[in-house]
Amino acid sequence: MLSIALAGKPNAGKSTFYTAATMADVDVANYPFTTIDANRGVSYVRTDCPCLERDERCNADNCEDGKRYVPIELLDVAGLVPGAHEGKGLGNQFLDELTNADVIVNVVDASGGTNAKGEPVDIGEHDPLEDIDFIEEEMDLWLAGIVDRNWESVERKSRSPDFDIDDVLADMLSGFGASPKQIATVLRELDYPEDPIQWEDAHREELARLVRERTKPIVVAANKIDVAPEENVERLLELDKPVIPTTAEGELALRRAADNGLVDYDPGDETLEIGDDVNDAQREALEDLRETMAEWDGTGVQGALNHAVYDLLEHITAYPVEDAAKWSDGSGNILPDAHLLPDGSTPVDLAYAVHSDIGDGYLHAVNAKSNREVGENYELEEGDVIKIVSTN
Ligand SMILES: Nc1nc2c(ncn2[C@@H]2O[C@H](COP(=O)(O)OP(=O)(O)O)[C@@H](O)[C@H]2O)c(=O)[nH]1
Ligand SMILES: [Mg+2]
């Protein structure tokens, strides 16, 4: 499963975001280091279900009237503070946990109501722009430290006649989630001495930065938009980085209200419908939230997860079926499964995602929307419904 980590300084709203997005109970509190261990839960990205193109909506568990929710893993990593790579504020442990992630949501307190260490200050007192770069810098320095510590072994291996720097670095950085292909791309971009003994700190730092950029893309969640000065959010949106305005607290309130039947709201909706069973105080709070959502296109929590998976990781959703006419599995369930695959994936990749046996026995595939056979080099598109024919 794809894994998204929530990073950011203490009190930015990571645990609130996590709780809302997974609806699990974790500690949410206004003091640093509430979350000591990485919390790991299941959340979803949202997409249009192909059943919208049919007369009837499908009955899949993760489809709500054509709103399709595809599972991903969400990690609530404890707060990072500047200096984390040197071990400040339990830093190394937190950075290690980020290693497991495919993509990172950097939760920033856009209200400016917490200082650099995450301690509460008056709203607007701290400039949230200062909280953007340090996560990247901490990760870069931390990775550079790992490269540094391993460099002697690279130097040793370089004496072997069949030394290949691509292989050695791919091996060293595979634990960080870097594929051999990514390492090869990075090495093409990097200007470096042939002989590892001649590498300087600057070379290793640049290598670390490029690898981190490729293997851990980051989207910023400009959080607490419900209380943030609008100007702060606008300045964050002007950055040359992906930024999604969010209110994690608003999303949490909405999910709880929806659970209790007080509102009509599905994660990722841009607005909500207030039911008749709310009291005056609830109505007022929900109307405020509705105004905030109207300004920023929803609570942004779903938007941030979607951006991470569909835009930064460039994934698509494909739906394997056994019956190309009914779009169902063998038991008649319509569109039972959805798979997230990297852009450019083929029916063979989808077959392997379903099961390695299905992949091994792959014969051909049918695009169930057009009812035409597709070649094994066909590039799957978002929302494709595919029947795989396999000997297994
Ligand atoms: N106003 C507002 N407060 C929020 C929002 N998200 C989180 N908070 C509050 O910020 C404080 C810290 O939240 P928490 O999720 O524990 O932060 P963490 O340390 O990053 O995990 C808590 O009091 C939350 O209720 C938000 O979107 N708006
Ligand atoms: Mg927390």
UniProtKB/TrEMBL annotation:
Alphabetized Gene3D superfamilies for the sequence: 1.10.8.470, 3.10.20.30, P-loop containing nucleotide triphosphate hydrolases (3.40.50.300)
Statement: the UniProt record of this protein carries the keyword Nucleotide-binding: yes
Transmembrane stretches, start-end: none
Pfam family, one: TGS
All residue ranges annotated as the OBG-type G domain in the record: 2-290
PROSITE patterns associated with the record: G_OBG
Keywords linked to the UniProt accession: GTP-binding, Nucleotide-binding
GO MF annotations, alphabetized: ATP hydrolysis activity; GTP binding
Any one cellular-component term (Gene Ontology): cytoplasm
Record-stated family: Belongs to the RelA/SpoT family.
Protein name in UniProt: OBG-type G domain-containing protein
